[in-house]
Each structure stands twice: as C-alpha cells, then as structure tokens.
Amino acid sequence: MPDKDEVTLTIAYTNDLHSHFGAMGRIAAMIDDLRSEPNSEMLLLDIGDHMDRAAPETEGTMGQANVDILNLTGYDAITIGNNEGLTFTPELLTETYARLRCPVICNNIVEQRTGQPPGWMRRHHIVQRGPFTIGLIGATAAFSNFYSLLSWDALDPLETIQYDVEQLRPRVDLIIVMSHLGILLDRQLAETIPDIDLIIGGHTHHLLEEPLIIGKTAITAAGKFGNYVGLIKYRKNPLSGLPEIYDGKVLQVEPGVESEGVLSSIDIYRKKAKARLDRTVTTTDRKLLISYHSESSFGNLLAQAVRRFTNSELAIVNSGQLLSDLPAGDISEGMLHERCPSPINPCTMILKGEDILYTLEQSLLPEMMDKTIFGYGFRGKVLGGICLDGMEVEYDPYAAPYRRVTKASVAGIPLNPSATYKVGTLDMFTFGVGYEQLQHGSEQKFMLPLFIRDLLRLELQTAGAVDSCFFARWKQV
User: Fold this and answer.
1) Rounded distance, CA 123 to CA 103, Å?
2) Is 447:347 a contact under the CB 8 Å cutoff?
C-alpha cells in the first residue's frame, strides 16, 4: 500500500453501457466520490459501445444524450465500439462528437479517402496526472466488410497497437490500451506486445473482478450495461520509480445517490427524443400482427420490405426482430423503433436451395422459435420463426423433424436443392447465429446504413404493401 502522503493514480472505467441510462446517474455519483479521495489523481475512461440506438434516448437524439452524459460525468477519454462506428454514419458521428469535451481515441479506423483518422479522432493521447505520464491507445473490433461500406478502412489492431506502443514507450511511464476488441484479442495483445502495462477491455461483455496478469500486462473489464465500474489503482514503486498496481477490482453499481445533473440531462433528452420519434411517417388502416410460432402479417411485411429493398428473388428474415403488433392508424418513427429496435442491416447472398430447405425445416422446430439470442445487433427476446417473401411453402407440422416441408417454390417454380438463389436477409445471420445455414451464402453484400426498421417505414409507405402481407406464404397440409 502507498504511504498516506504518496500521490496515487486511480483509473476508473466503463465499457459496453449500451445506452443503459438508468445506471448513468449512479455511476456519475460514484465517480464523484472517487474523485474526492485524498492524494489520488483520477483518470476516467470509456471503452466503447456507450451508445446503442435501441434506446429511444440515443435514437431520438442521434447520440447527443450520450455525449452530454459523458461530459457531465467528466470522462477524460473514450474509444468507439461497433455500436458507434457501424450504426452511425461518419457524418452523424462528426456532428455528435462535435460537442464532446474529451478526446476520442482509436488507431485502427481511418478514412478511405485520406488514410487518416477523421478530425474528431486521435490515434493516441498522452495525459499527465500528478507524477504519472500516461499514454492512451484505443482500438475497436475491425469489421472490415462493414466499415468499408461507410467509407472507413478498419486496420489490423494488433499492428496499429504495436506501432503506437513503440512510439509512446520512450515518452511515458504507463501505457494503457483502451480495447474494444474482446477478451481473446486482449490476451493476444498481452502475449505479443509486452510493453503494454494495462489493457482495459470490452466488446465481449466479459467481467474480470480482478486483473488478469499475463507477463507484465494487466487485463481488466467491467462486464456490460453499467452493472459495474472498473477500478485500477497505481502507485510509484519506491525502488524503481515505475508505476505498479496495488489494487484492482470492480464496483457494483447498486441503488444509491445519483447525480442530479445527469438525471436532469437524461430527462431533458428523453423529452427531446420523444418529440422527434412522435413524428408520423405513414398511416395504415389494418392492424398487423406478429407471431413467433406461426406466419403473421407483420412478419410478412418485414420480409417484403427486405426483398423489395435488396431486389432479391426471395427474402428470409426471423419474426423475433419484431417485438409487438403494429396497430392501425397513424404510425410514428417511435412506434417502428419500439417494435424493431435492433440496429440490424439488410444484406444479400447467393444461397443454395439445400441450405434454404434446411433453414425452413429448422424454423419449424419449437426449440428454434423460442431460442434466446444475444448480441450481433439483436435486441429482441427470441429468434422466432422464418418469415418469407417471394416463396411459398407447404408443410406438415405433424411429420418427423426435418421432414415437414412437403413442397417449396420460388415464383411458382419448385425449389431446386442444387440450384442457387439470390436471397435478401439480415446481417446477423452471416455470423452463424440463429439459423446457422444462412452463413453459408456466398457473395455476401451488406447494405449500410439503413436498418430494417427503416425498410419497414419504406414498405408501409408503398402502395399495396399492407394488403400483400396478408397473403399466405406458409400453407399447412
């Protein structure tokens, strides 16, 4: 333990809050308490995915609510996660981060046009806290295929971090990597780049209640959703003069005193978001139902929307994307957001008939309809069944599993297991989640930045679309 008069460094951090605004007032109050500790310098960091457009406060303000909370809480630096980098366009991020008072640090995302980070982003950053000179490096998960559609290049984080460590090491006495890369890459970083002192992790939502030590590198992470605040404390070794960890833990965010300023800000932005999301985008005279165990009109509308937008032969989506029925009458942006909150994009692929048939059979299994899915942009509860457009299926629900489809046709022509088809579907399936055969599609093309709720809006505004979604695709025999 340090001497009572020795200046120490407290590094507090959050990761993967995903716009859980209910935790942010309490976190801010906890940080205020930590700042009041005597003889301690403070550094507060966020490791990405602070924003999540599934939250109406974020969606309705395009992240301005999050930025205000970051400012009020007093963050010293942040990095971006995939929820910032991939669900906001570069133009939106430029506007959103214009009001941020601390630097955004990320060294593996650059503009395709210039090969440099955008104006609001830094590759690395050096800060001084008392006797501690600290080099901050940030990196985020490199989903190259997705970032390229937004005019970014996602570089290999192992290479960019190695380079920045070499540049910073002679200039600082503590190197911290703010890593939105996941626990496996964090381990690899520690094993291959020994000059890193501390890796603060995120992305895979892992919780390390005390630091994991690999060589001379400490790895930490604080779970998800603002359930914990991470804490690492350094002192100067009295013999070597180098920083060393003397305490590392996570603090549970339990009910207690909350920051009045943060609570007030959340309330203001919640009202602003509601005003924006209350705008009417279309009107329908028929109620659209959703079911996770049988064909439904709202599920069919989503499949229609994806097929029309992707210009595919057929569309395959899952009903679990939709959280409740859509009533008749005026439809607002907020109603679509509430029913389809997932930041999921459409995509196309070339898929074999045999993979389509397997997926259809799999979708008729109750355990698949009720399967719980986490991550990959999915913000629903269960996977649900398959919704189709451009295809008709006859099935016997009482037949043996994987023998229930008796006939399937595309545009009236029987499906050929050995033939290939252009299929419109959802990006999350390309990761092998849910209906895993869909990841086998070739020539995958992702369509950013529109989300599937944007496609629903376009479909609802299309003449005759609502009537079409009541036509049956699945016929029981």
Assistant:
1) 10
2) yes
- pLDDT band, very low/low/confident/very high, at 6 (cuts 50, 70, 90): confident
| Residues 44/74, Cβ–Cβ less than 8 Å | yes
Angle 68-89-182 from CA coordinates, rounded to 5°: 75
CA pair distance 429, 401, nearest whole angstrom: 22
Residue 240 has a pLDDT of 86
DSSP H or E segment with residue 174: strand 174-180
Within 10 Å of residue 284's Cβ, how many Cβ atoms?
A: 17
Asked if pLDDT for residue 4 goes beyond 70, the answer is no
Contact by Cβ (8 Å): 31, 74: yes
Nearest alpha carbon to residue 53 among 270, 343, 473, 394: 343
Residues linked to residue 213 through DSSP beta bridges, in sequence order: 218
Mean pLDDT on 265-276:
98
Decide if pLDDT at 471 tops 80: yes
Contacts of residue 444, Cβ cutoff 8 Å, sequence gap at least 6: 145, 347, 348, 349, 430
Chain centre distance of CA 437: 23
157-168 vs 183-192: helix axis angle to the nearest 10? Answer: 40
Under DSSP, is residue 383 helix (H, G, I), strand (E, B) or coil? coil
CB-count exposure of residue 82 (10 Å: 0-12, 13-18, 19+):
buried
Helix (H) or strand (E) holding 43: strand 40-46
Per-residue pLDDT, 137: 98
Residue spans of alpha helices (H) in 149-280:
157-168, 183-192, 260-277
- Going by pLDDT thresholds of 50, 70 and 90, the confidence category of residue 238 is confident
Q: Tens of pLDDT along 418-441?
A: 999 999 999 999 999 899 899 999
First-to-last alpha carbon distance for the chain, in angstroms, is 75
Rg of the chain in Å (alpha carbons): 25
**pLDDT band (50, 70, 90) for residue 187:** very high
Distance CA 389, CA 391 (A): 5
pTM of the model: 0.93
